[in-house]
User: Fold this.
Amino acid sequence: MITSGTFLFLALQLACLTAETAVENIPDGCTRISEKSFLTANCESSLMTTLGEFCSRMFPGRGTDGQWLGTMNNGDPKCRVCCVFSNKNNQYYNVTTAPNGLPCGPNKTCRSGMCQFKKK
Assistant:
C-alpha cells in the first residue's frame, strides 16, 4: 500500500529528475559551455558575450540573476544561435535565429535565418 508520504517522496524524486534533465538537454548543433567560460566572460568582450546580450533580449523571461552566453556553429546553414543561461549551478539552453548580418562562414552572412553569400 502506498502511503501519502511515499507518494510525496516519489513525486519529489520525479521533479528533481525532470529539472536535471532540462538543464542537461543540449539542443542539436549546440555545444556544452563550461563553467570556466562563464567565469572568464566577465573579464572580456567576445562574440560569445555579444551573442549572450542578444540572447538575453530574445529570452527575457529568465530574469537578471544569471548570465547569458551565445555560440554559433559556422557550418549551420540555418543561422541558429545557441543561447546558454547560467545561474548558480544550472544551465539552460535555448536556440534562436541569428540576427541579419552576422557572419556565418567565409564571405557569408545570415539573412532571414539562412546563411547566404554576401551581396555584392
